[in-house]
Amino acid sequence: DREWEENLTVELLLKKCKYTFPLIMVKVNGKYIPKEKYKDTLVADNDDVQVIHSIAGG
Fold first, then answer.
1. pLDDT band (50, 70, 90) for residue 11
2. How do the domains of the chain map onto residue ranges?
3. In whole angstroms, how far apart are CA 25 and each of 6, 13, 29?
């Protein structure tokens, strides 16, 4: 859990949490957010944000 901030976007949240892995998927309240929308997608107080790391096997 993180403390919510006003005007927090998905992009800023990922930076604050130090997510640097290139293959991630983000969902806000169960809705997939495309990478190109990270900077425009606001995270409201009490939103459920999931960051999922994609891992390839072989």
1. very high
2. 10-53
3. 23, 13, 13
